[in-house]
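Record passed on here:
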Amino acid sequence: MDVLRIILLILHFVGLAMLFGGFLVQQKAIAQGKGTVLPIMWRGALTQIVTGLLLVATIQLGDLFEVDNVKIAVKLVIAIVITVLVFVYRKKDPAPSWSLWTVGVLTFANIVIAVAWR
């Protein structure tokens, strides 16, 4: 069960890189109002949701350690908001700058929550 958890965690990080990297590489375009939701961001958001849910399920089913359900709920709500924004604006060219900034800030917030919330 621990091997599965590690694989899911690695895939969760890959999803994070896809989502946040897609935001970071187009900072100049976003500032000019020409940013778009890249296809990699959509895939990254979905990867984050799926692997996050599977991670929690694996940890709880395997009784590996105690999960903070409030922390997980907060992260899930943020991930859902990110995924909805990416889905809604994925075909708009350009996407509203506020939506891309919101995706970036919320993704960073999820990173901070994952690392700092104990």
